[in-house]
Design the sequence.
């Protein structure tokens, strides 16, 4: 997932587009990886959101 988000964000930079929500989701996935969830699927974002509570 992060690879694909990275490609998207790199392309956006190249064409001058701003994708703040995409960057935020990428950051959340990075946080999930740091929490040891590097092989988890999209549902892993729930763990990240619970961390905010």
Sequence:
């Amino acid at each position: 997932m992060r690879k694909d988000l990275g490609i998207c964000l790199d392309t956006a930079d190249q064409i001058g587009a701003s994708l703040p929500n995409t960057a935020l989701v990428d950051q959340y996935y990075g946080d999930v990886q740091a929490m040891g969830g590097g092989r988890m699927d999209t549902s892993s974002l729930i763990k990240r959101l619970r961390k905010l509570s």
